[in-house]
Design goal:
This protein has five helices and six strands, in the order βαβαββαααββ. It has 143 residues and is α/β, with parallel strands linked by helices.
């Protein structure tokens, strides 16, 4: 039996919309990352971007379990000497919850040029409205 290897022109991409309200951040991110990679398709090939587009809405209603709101920090560096910045997730989820979800999904993708291409297929919004109605996305239930 021959192994099927997908090519870039074999891929048919769909658009999915995910309502993130009430979902745990890590579980949401891992399931969305699998869809962005294309692991839910029978034509999955590790070295080809076979994934679909994903729109995440209602990120302001994502929950973190345990004491992560107080103990977990989002860290980034400005590029200047001594420029390490820390933001507590309690503050981050209140102000930039879309950034928290985006970074969680990005961290679960491959750290190479293929992963950088995959993350461009992710659209994240704080509220229930999104700008991709023209693509006619299908509702996806990840629970």
């Amino acid at each position: 039996m021959k192994t099927y290897m997908a090519h870039a022109n074999d891929v048919v991409r769909k658009w999915y919309v995910v309502d993130a309200s009430g979902m745990a951040l890590g579980r949401l991110a891992s399931k969305v990352a699998a869809i962005l990679r294309g692991k839910n398709k029978p034509i999955f090939t590790p070295n080809v971007d076979t994934g679909d587009f994903v729109i995440i809405v209602n990120t302001d209603k994502v929950v973190l379990t345990g004491k992560k709101l107080e103990k977990k920090y989002y860290r980034y560096h400005t590029g200047h000497i001594g420029g390490l910045k820390e933001i507590q997730y309690k503050t981050l989820m209140a102000t930039k919850s879309d950034l928290a979800v985006y970074e969680a999904v990005k961290g679960m993708l491959p750290k190479n040029s293929l992963g950088r291409k995959m993350i461009t297929k992710l659209k994240v919004y704080k509220g229930a409205e999104h700008n991709q109605q023209a693509q006619k996305p299908e509702a996806l239930n990840l629970n």
